[in-house]
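Lecture 7 notes: from sequence to structure.

We start with a single chain of 265 residues. Read the sequence below before looking at the structure.
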Amino acid sequence: MHTPLCGHATGTPEQYIDAARARGVELLTFTCHVPMANPGFGTRNTRMAADDLPRYCEMIEAAREYGQEVGVRVLLGIEAEVFPDEAEMARMDETLARYSFDFVLGSLHHQLPVYRERIRQHGLSSDAAIIADHFESLTYAASTGRYDSFAHPDLIRIYGTVKPFEPLQFESVIREFLSAAAENGTCIEVNTSGFTKGVFEIQPRPQILDWAQQAGVQLTLGSDAHRPDSVGQHFSQAYAAIRAAGFDLLCYFEAGRKTEVSIPS
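Now the structure, written as tokens:
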């Protein structure tokens, strides 16, 4: 779940909670976009500013109290950036360390200017090189232990910065990422927003879910809602895809600790 503080979401946390209650969703973790010092990661229309973070935490604490009244558990998370430059990540770590987040969701947004500039500087001119670099960056991120789960790990398929591709074309590098995630106990997210972003399918692709199950990766589930009516969107389809890949459990994080739950029937 997001909040208007990121500049591209609408609705109050309480409205998201009401939507969750109406759809039978019992647990919400808000994961608004972390502030980043480098403007290449986007500014007011992309993420919170640093001075928004105290307000964000206060909003979610108030939402937690409201959720208790109506029967929806609310947790405080953050959507943190994945970027293969430890200098940038160290500054982000300083921000994260000031707050007690229940859940740190790692996201690589390859469409952002800072990542496009990195691609240019490294001479990655072909789609194949860019796609491989995307998953190699996720593999490195998994090795850091910085994140609890990785959001939409194949997001690179969606925004048109590379031509459409099938996971089988990049099986080796994708499996390396999944192995690193499993080895470090980091989940990957099943994100249902892909059903509304033009590809009209789950993220990650079912093929990647199959490989994740084979590698021993565990899953979190999110609707990536940027407005209240998107809360819990397409969860029934997600449950079916998750079961088809051989999973019978999902995970959530509270105070950084992983809890396993059965997939709802």
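Residues 53-70 form the longest helix (18 residues). Keep this in mind for problem set 3.
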